Amino acid sequence: MPPQPDPSAIAPTQPPWEAVLAGRARVLAVDDEPDFLEVIEDYLMDLDVDLRTAPDPEAALQRLGESPADVLLIDLQMPKGGGRRLLTEVARLHPDAACIVITAWGSEPVAVEMLKELGAVDYLSKTGLDDEVLTRAIDGARLARRAGQATAHRELAIAGVERGGALTLYPLGYLTAQPELRRLARLAQAVDAARARGLMQVEVDLRYLEACQAVALGYLLEAARRLEAAGGALTVSATAAPRAVVRVLTGLARSPERPTGLTVRAQR
Fold it and tell me: What pLDDT is attached to residue 53?
């Protein structure tokens, strides 16, 4: 049997998670209505966002050629090909950019088409849009962008977001033993690192995982015990994760060895 990784081995300096949401988000908003572009500018003016605008798909592609963007906010109903054409071209020419569709006339079937067929990572309606909704969507798109990069290379990345003394960890890509066994312990190591830094309320959100092996969650169970012993608590959520990941987490939820300080949300 090959040697097992040590889940409590913590790097002493840098935390073992990426600050994916740190730094300025590069956002390109594309809409043929100048008034709505002004609304977007108003919503984002007080945030750490590098915002550019474009009135149509052609101008958007030109701006992307000049400088890349992390997130695109794309109106569906536009001239010169509309949002569908722009989504297709962005996927072909700028695959690292995450696209959010925003429209005033959308319906659920349109949302499904944009998300599943044309590569958008989220869908928002102009009705009811505000700064909080838009900020959450942009943060989610940045996480989805990094997850797409990890998945494309069959890697595991772990993103961390600290807010109010609590930490949310997002494992991205593949929490599996291939190509290296030690990958299985990395999520547990991140929880241990949070404890070592005094972050006692930790959530692990599995929504961006493509695959997960049960043994990795076994290591996570041990990390939850160590966190609970130090006075902390761990929550593990797979409510928006792929079905295969939910099935693995369901086994953890039913474990008789689950510590009382571990909360598991496995429903999809």
Answer: 97
Contacts of 143 (CB under 8 A, 6+ apart): 20, 21, 159, 170, 172, 208
Q: Which residues pair with 235 in a beta bridge?
A: 203, 263
Tell me if 28 sits within 8 A of 69, measured CB to CB: yes
Alpha helices in 67-182 (DSSP H): 82-93, 108-112, 131-152
CB distance 253 to 221 below 8 Å: no
pTM score: 0.89
CA angle 140, 141, 144 (to 5 degrees): 90
Alpha helices in the chain (DSSP H): 34-44, 57-66, 82-93, 108-112, 131-152, 186-196, 214-229, 243-253
């609590």: which residue's tokens?
Answer: 166
C-alpha distances out from residue 213 to 54, 114, 181, 218, Å: 44, 30, 11, 9
Q: Which CATH class is domain 25-151?
A: alpha beta
Of the candidate CATH numbers 3.30.750.24, 3.40.50.300, 3.40.190.10, 3.30.70.270, the domain formed by 154-265 belongs to 3.30.750.24
In one-letter notation, the amino acid at residue 66 is E
Rounded-to-integer distance, Cα 199 and Cα 220, Å? 16
What are the tens digits of pLDDT across the range 172-202? 999 999 878 899 999 999 999 999 999 999 9
Burial code (b: 16+ CB inside 10 Å, e: under 16) for 48-80 equals ebebebbbbbeebbebbeeeebbbbbbbbebee
